[in-house]
Design goal:
The structure is a homodimer.
Chain A lengths: L1 E2 L11 E6 L13 E16 L7 H12 L2 E8 L8 H19 L6 E5 L9 H5 L2 H6 L6 H7 L8 E9 L2 E10 L12 E6 L5 H13 L5 E2 L9 E6 L9 H21 L7 E9 L2 H13 L1 H8 L5 H10 L10 E4 L2 E5 L2 E2 L4 H9 L3 E7 L5 E8 L3 H8 L4
Parallel strand pairs in A: 4-5, 8-10, 9-16, 11-15
Antiparallel strand pairs in A: 1-6, 2-3, 3-4, 3-10, 6-7, 7-8, 11-16, 12-13, 12-15, 13-14
Helix pairs in contact in A: 1-2, 6-7, 8-10
Chain lengths: 399, 399
C-alpha cells in the first residue's frame, strides 16, 4: 500500500465529479456548495449514518433506499443547508432533487443519493439545486476530485483528501476519500461527511463489514466538542472497475488507513483548533471503561482549554479520570506527556518535571498516556484544544 | 420565610468567622485566602461531597471523621491549593492544620474540619496555614460573614451569600449560606464549596435528609462545563442556638431556597458567563430521560456558544435532543423561547418568528422549554453561555 500524491475521490477508475456555486445558503459568497460524484458503472454502497435520533431528510431517504438496493450511480452533496428538521417539505425536496439528477444522468429511478450539511431547520431551496443539474452533469470529469473536496466544506479551512494504491498479484486497485468536518466531531461522528471510493470489486456485505470496522477506529475515535449532528454520513463506494477482487485483510487495512488519516485531518482542522492531541488510556478494567475514560478526557472543556493554554496541569487530567466514573484508584494512576513519565502512583514524580512537561505542551502535537493499572484494556482517541476561536466560530456561525 | 438583607454565614446565632491573606498559592496577590468559621457551641453537620472517585485530602479527612462523629466546632477553608492528588503529604497536612486549630480553639481532638479549593497536585504549604492560626482565632467575630464569603473565592467575581428568617409559633430561626463556584460546575457539583449555617435545633439524620433533598434540586441541577472537581463540598451546620425545633417541611423549604439561590448565583457568575439560561425539559418518557436530555442541552458547547452569539438557532437544540439518546420523536418536539412558541411538531411554526426569538436571545436571562410529548417527566437545569472569556480564564488559570 502506498500513498498517491494529490489523490482524491476521482482517483479510482470510473469516478467523475463536478461542482457549482449555487448559493444554497443565500449569503452570495460565491463558494462552490453543490457537487456531484458519479461512477461510470454503478457502485456498491456501504454506509454509516449518525446515531442521532433526529436525522436529516437526505439520510432518511438514503436509509430507506438501502433497504432494497445496494447499487447506485451518483451522489449529490450540498454544503449550505442541512435539510434537517424540515418536515415533509425536506423529504419532498430530496425526492425532487434526486429525480432531476436521475433524469439528466439517465441512470434510472433510485440511482442517486444525497448528502447535506449546513444550518438545521431552514427550508431546502430546491430550485437553486434543480437549476444547476444540467451544468453539473455536463461538467462531470475525473479531474475534479479537489473541487468535490472543496465543495463539501463548511467551516473547514482546508480540503481533506487521501488516496492509496494497493498492489496485488493480479494488479492494483485504489482506495481514496475525502471528508469535511471541523466542528461537532464526536463519538459516532458529527456534522461529518465522508466519501470513500474504490475501484476494487467487492460484495455489499463484505463492504459494509469493512466500513463498520474502519469507522470504529477512525471517525468514532475522534472528538472535537462532543456534539453529534443530524447529518453525519460515511459512504464507501466500490465500482469494481479495476477488476481486482481484493484480499479482504489487505482491503480492510487500506480502508482503515484512509479513514484514520481523514479522521485525523478533521481533528487537525477542528474549529479553532491549535493543537492535535492523542489521548491513550491503558490498562483499564474493561473495554467500556477505556473508551469512557478516554472520551471523558478528550471532551473535558477544562482539559481542552489547558492544552490551548499550554499548561501541563496534570491535576485536571487526574480529576477528569475520577469524574468519568470508571474503575480507578488514585494511587495507581500513571501519566506520561509524550515520553516523559510525569505522574507515578497518582502523584507528580518530581516537581522539577513541570518545566519539561511545559515544553512538551508547546508542541503542535501532544500525546498523553493515562495508565490506570486496573486491567488490560486500552483506547486511543484523537482530539484538539478548545480555543477562543472555537467560541467565535460557533457564536457567529449564522452571521 | 423572608430574606434578610446582607445576611451571611454568621447571621444565625453563635457563628463567628475570620480571614487572612496567607499567600497559599504563592502569587503574593494579597487576597484573603484562608478563613475560619467557628460556632460557640458545637454544630451538627450534614455533608455532601463530590462523586469524583479522586477526592482531595480534606474530603478524605472529613468523610472519615463523619463515620464516627456528627458534631464539630469549626471549619477552616483555603482557596489557594486544592490539596488533591498530593498523596500522603496531603493527608498529613490536613492532620497538622486541624490539630493546630483544635489546640488554639481548645475544642478538642476531631472538632475541626477543612475545605480546600485551588490547583490540583501541588503540595499544601502547611507552614503558611499554621503560622496564621493564632491570628484567625483571635479575630473571630460575627461581623465577618462577608470576609468569609470573599476568602473562599477563586475565579468567582462576586461573593455569594443569602440568609432567610423563618418565623414559627415558638420564635424565629435563621438559615444562611455562602458558596463559591464559577467554573467546573456540573452534575454532582464541581469545584464548588458551599457552607450553610442555621441556629435551628435538628438531629443529624434529619439534617442529612434535608441537605440531600436540597442539593438534588439546586447544586446538582446546575452546570457550567460538565466537569466535576475533586473538592466539591456542601456543609449544612446546625448549632441549635435559637432553641427552635423546626417543622421539617418548613425547614426543608428554607434550606431549598437558600441552596437554589446560591446555586443560581454560581451559574450567573460562571467563568466568562454573559447569560443565565434555564433549560426546562417537559413530558419526557422517564425521570432519567428528562435529566439526561436537560443536561445534554445545558452542556452542549454548540448550544452554549449559540447563547453567547445570541443566535436563535433552534436546530442545535433539536439536534442535541437527538444526540442525547433519550426517547424522542422528531415530529413530536415543541420548543418555546421564554413564552414564545417557536417550534411545533419538530418544525418552525413560522419563519417570521425568528426575529422575535432573536430579540429574546438578547436578554440576560433566557428560558428554553423543550416539550418532548413522550410522557410526564420533567427536569429543570440552570446553565450559562460559553464565551471567549471562559477559554481565556481556563487557558491562563495558573499563570
Amino acid at each position: 500500500m502506498q500513498n498517491i500524491k494529490g489523490a482524491g475521490v476521482c482517483t479510482p477508475l470510473g469516478y467523475l465529479a463536478s461542482s457549482v456555486a449555487a448559493d444554497i445558503k443565500g449569503n452570495k459568497k460565491g463558494k462552490k456548495d453543490l457537487t456531484l460524484l458519479y461512477s461510470e458503472v454503478p457502485f456498491t454502497l456501504a454506509a454509516v449514518f449518525t446515531k442521532n435520533t433526529i436525522k436529516a431528510a437526505p439520510l432518511k431517504h438514503a436509509i430507506k433506499a438501502l433497504e432494497t438496493n445496494r447499487e447506485f450511480s451518483a451522489i449529490v452533496v450540498n454544503s449550505g443547508n442541512a435539510n434537517a428538521s424540515t418536515g415533509k417539505q425536506g423529504l419532498e425536496a430530496v425526492d425532487t432533487i434526486v429525480k432531476a439528477f436521475e433524469d439528466e444522468l439517465g441512470t434510472g429511478e433510485g440511482s442517486v443519493l444525497m448528502g447535506s450539511t449546513g444550518t438545521i431547520g431552514v427550508k431546502m431551496p430546491v430550485e437553486k439545486v434543480t437549476s444547476s443539474v444540467k451544468e453539473l452533469v455536463d461538467e462531470l470529469d475525473d479531474a475534479n476530485s479537489h473541487d468535490f473536496a472543496a465543495a463539501i466544506m463548511t467551516t473547514d479551512t482546508v480540503p481533506k483528501e487521501i488516496g492509496v494504491l494497493v498492489e496485488t498479484p493480479n494488479g492494483a486497485y485504489v482506495v481514496a476519500g475525502t471528508t469535511k468536518g471541523a466542528g461537532m466531531i464526536a463519538p459516532h461522528m458529527a456534522t461529518m461527511l465522508c466519501y470513500i471510493t474504490t475501484d476494487a470489486l467487492i460484495g455489499a456485505d463484505n463492504l459494509q463489514n469493512v466500513l463498520n470496522n474502519a469507522v470504529g477506529e477512525s471517525f468514532n475515535s475522534i472528538t472535537i466538542d462532543n456534539d453529534m449532528s443530524t447529518n453525519d454520513t460515511v459512504f464507501l463506494m466500490a465500482n469494481g472497475m479495476s477488476g481486482i477482487i481484493p484480499d479482504i485483510d489487505q482491503f480492510q487495512e487500506a480502508v482503515n488507513h484512509v479513514a484514520l488519516e481523514l479522521a485525523k485531518m478533521i481533528v487537525k482542522d477542528g474549529e479553532g483548533a491549535t493543537k492535535f492531541v492523542t489521548i491513550k488510556v491503558k490498562n483499564a478494567q474493561s473495554e467500556a471503561d477505556a473508551k469512557k475514560c478516554a472520551f471523558a478526557i478528550a471532551n473535558s472543556p477544562l482539559v481542552k482549554t489547558m492544552f490551548y493554554g499550554e499548561d501541563p496541569n496534570w491535576g485536571r487530567l487526574i480529576a477528569t479520570v475520577g469524574a468519568s466514573g470508571v474503575a480507578a484508584v488514585e494511587e495507581k494512576i500513571d501519566i506520561c506527556f509524550d515520553d516523559l513519565a510525569y505522574v507515578k502512583d497518582g502523584i507528580i514524580i518530581d516537581e522539577k518535571l513541570e518545566e519539561k512537561a511545559a515544553k512538551i505542551m508547546k508542541n503542535d502535537e501532544i500525546e498523553i498516556t493515562i495508565d490506570l493499572n486496573m486491567g488490560t484494556f486500552g483506547k486511543t482517541v484523537y482530539t484538539c484544544d478548545f480555543s477562543k476561536e472555537y467560541v467565535s466560530i460557533n457564536a457567529d456561525y449564522r452571521t
